[in-house]
Amino acid sequence: MSKEMGLVLSGGGARGAYQVGVLKAVQEVSETSGVPFRFDYLSGVSAGAINASSLACHAENFKFAVTNLSRLWTEITFEKVFSTNSLTMSRIGWQWLSDLSIGGLTGTTPGKALMDTSPLRELIHGNMDYEKVRMNIEQGHLKALAITAIDYVKSATTTFVQGHPELPEWDKGRKRSERAQIGTEHILASSAIPLLFPPVKVDDRFFGDGAVRNHAPCSPVIYLGAQKLLVIGVRMQGATAYEERAHKNILAPSVARVVNTIMNGVMLDAVEQDIDRLRRLNDYANAIPADQHQRIALRPLDYLFISPSVDIGEMAVQKAHKLPRMVRFLLKGLGSMHDASELISYLLFESSFCADLIEIGYKDGLSRKDELITLLSK
After folding, report:
1. What is the mean pLDDT of residues 58-84?
2. Which of 198, 249, 328, 369 has its CA 20 to 30 A from that of 337?
């Protein structure tokens, strides 16, 4: 009997398109190799929450699920994610400037976010079939869907779990699970990039991007019972062009470069650190006699981590001219386009850019064919 598999999809805004390319390769490898598979546990954060939820809607037919996701990302436009008209963006900008300059006198605070994401709410709602998620769980095509967000009131990472009643729950202080019927608000909350996208109210609490304070993004599927993991990151390993330029620059960093660094720490670092933690735990577990694993509640965990082979930030800079004019204006006020490369890549919800990311993810996935077959066969 094959081990139960968990899929972990990290955040990164428009970079989420890369994950779809990898999943496309996974489906093809499975089909051509004759090695069957399924994802028992789906876990998503931020853009990964959108992808994981869409997969859960079609868990009974993975090939269709991937095709559906590819269509969603290759047809994406800025207008489908946030309001891009000059009137809306100017109103938000002036509100921020006004509140920041005279807020101390009036007692007001800046707006909730720099962008209006009501279009994203409509996009998510129109592309999800929550009744099918329930049916897929009931019919055994899927054991659980887990969506993670940050609770701004409790300052805790909350993972909303929809799955079989017997699944375990956890409460580890700043990291807890909560039973839920996943809906648009949960996905939108997990995707609410701090400052850029507004917090989202779920029941009586406000939530934001699940990457915030999520130091162990692989943990939800592990807690739920996954015995092997496929983890898809959205950042190239090793030094990027942005980091090499910053290293050579002896001038004080621009605001854009500071924001880039903060956003990387919030959005992208955790999954890589969690993979390193998994590797070290596996090394430790493998050094212990197998008959002792049960006694110490430790076992090696099979996993495969796939991340981009190219610098997505550098790719984004080359297409920065496609950003809405007001967004370009705001970014240029923070520094050069190269200094804002990572931030641009989060916001570049543009069809040709996302199509390129899908193709890169597809090639990266196929390049790991042998490892994928090994993982799927276990």
Report:
1. 93
2. 198
- State the Cα–Cα distance between residues 117 and 195, nearest whole angstrom: 12
Residue 295's identity, in one-letter code, is R
In one letter, which amino acid is 188? L
- Among residues 39, 43, 44, 76, which one has the least CA distance to residue 61? 39
Q: Provide the mean pLDDT of the chain.
A: 86
Cα(47)–Cα(53) distance, rounded to whole angstroms? 10
From 76, 112, 98, 88, select the one nearest 327 (Cα to Cα). 88
Query: Annotated catalytic, 276?
Result: no
Q: Which of 116, 151, 209, 356 is catalytic?
A: 209
Q: Where are the domains of the chain?
A: 5-237+286-376
Length of the chain as a residue count? 378
DSSP codes joined into one string, 320-378: GGGS-HHHHHHHHTTS-TTTTHHHHHHH---HHHHHHHHHHHHHHHHHTHHHHHHHHH-
Percent of the chain with pLDDT over 70: 86
Q: Is the dihedral of CA 180, 181, 185, 189 positive or negative?
A: positive
Among the listed residues 10, 43, 46, 345, the single catalytic one is 46
129 is catalytic: no
Per the DSSP assignment, residues forming a β-bridge with 48 are: none
Average pLDDT over residues 182-204: 91
* Residues 294-325 pLDDT 10s: 677 677 889 999 999 999 999 999 999 998 88
Q: Give the Cα separation of 30 and 36 in Å (integer).
A: 6
Q: How many C-beta atoms lie closer than 10 Å to residue 106's C-beta?
A: 10
Amino acid identity of residue 169, one-letter, is E
C-alpha closest to that of 142 among 49, 47, 250, 225: 225
Closest CA to 301 of 252, 360, 230: 230
Q: How far is CA 121 from CA 146, 197, 201, in A?
A: 19, 11, 12
